[in-house]
UniProtKB/TrEMBL annotation:
<dbReference type="InterPro" id="IPR036271">
    <property type="entry name" value="Tet_transcr_reg_TetR-rel_C_sf"/>
</dbReference>
<dbReference type="GO" id="GO:0000976">
    <property type="term" value="F:transcription cis-regulatory region binding"/>
</dbReference>
<dbReference type="InterPro" id="IPR050109">
    <property type="entry name" value="HTH-type_TetR-like_transc_reg"/>
</dbReference>
<dbReference type="InterPro" id="IPR009057">
    <property type="entry name" value="Homeodomain-like_sf"/>
</dbReference>
<feature type="domain" description="HTH tetR-type">
    <location>
        <begin position="28"/>
        <end position="88"/>
    </location>
</feature>
<keyword id="KW-0238">DNA-binding</keyword>
<dbReference type="Pfam" id="PF02909">
    <property type="entry name" value="TetR_C_1"/>
</dbReference>
<feature type="DNA-binding region" description="H-T-H motif">
    <location>
        <begin position="51"/>
        <end position="70"/>
    </location>
</feature>
<protein>
    <submittedName>
        <fullName>TetR family transcriptional regulator</fullName>
    </submittedName>
</protein>
<dbReference type="GO" id="GO:0045892">
    <property type="term" value="P:negative regulation of DNA-templated transcription"/>
</dbReference>
<dbReference type="GO" id="GO:0003700">
    <property type="term" value="F:DNA-binding transcription factor activity"/>
</dbReference>
<keyword id="KW-0804">Transcription</keyword>
<dbReference type="InterPro" id="IPR001647">
    <property type="entry name" value="HTH_TetR"/>
</dbReference>
<dbReference type="Pfam" id="PF00440">
    <property type="entry name" value="TetR_N"/>
</dbReference>
<dbReference type="InterPro" id="IPR004111">
    <property type="entry name" value="Repressor_TetR_C"/>
</dbReference>
<keyword id="KW-0805">Transcription regulation</keyword>
Amino acid sequence: MVERTGNGDPLQSLALLWRTNVKKGRSGLTLDAIIDAGIAIANESGIDGLSMRKIAEKLGVSAMSLYAHVPSKTELIDLMVDHVNGKVYPDAESLPPESGWRAGLEVVAERNWKLLSDHRWLNDVDTVRPPLGPGTTGKYDIELKPLVGSGLEDVEIDQILTLVLEHVKAAARLSSAVAATNETTGNNDQEWWSVAGPVLTALIDPAKYPHASRIGMAAGQEYDSAVDPDRTYALGLRTILDGVECLILQKNEKNPES
């Protein structure tokens, strides 16, 4: 099941994200404690395992007491995503400008890969409408820095950052799917491929499927599996950044004074 940020009342969500109307509970329960408990449960059980009841049990309070701080699970997911986003970079200087735009974007990709590996539940949260709290806004601001001053237009910078982050998400989802399949089936990809690979080699006629048989066999032998998320991530990122480099060179050749 895929959850989505931005599904609640935007005014209510923004007030919670920016803490403009913090409520104090008589039990000492805080919004931050609820968020931390939600993240801990999602880390352990996935986003499908998250519920207000489980959070209440973890905190040793009644489920009703949670609603004095957060209206529903919908708004809570916004808060959880914003919170983990705010932990990606220790401070605004996490990407020093002297490192260059390419090295900076490589760090951005690595940090997001780690974020999605540490919190696999994020792979099941659609953030097309992002939770625009201080955590997400701060992350976005830092991640724009590498391309500022590169000669690209502002909208191009935003689009390239989106391209990099979406590539990381796609590779991370693939990695998460491999891990989940291994857990569900009780065997890893290499064990599965050792059985499926030889059978497919016998079944697939190279005359009928020339490309699938040749390239698929080469990939299977190289990966010892059907897919390799780490290599997909690395090659995809390198290809994207090579394209960005070409775009920057073209822009600067046309506008040498920019």
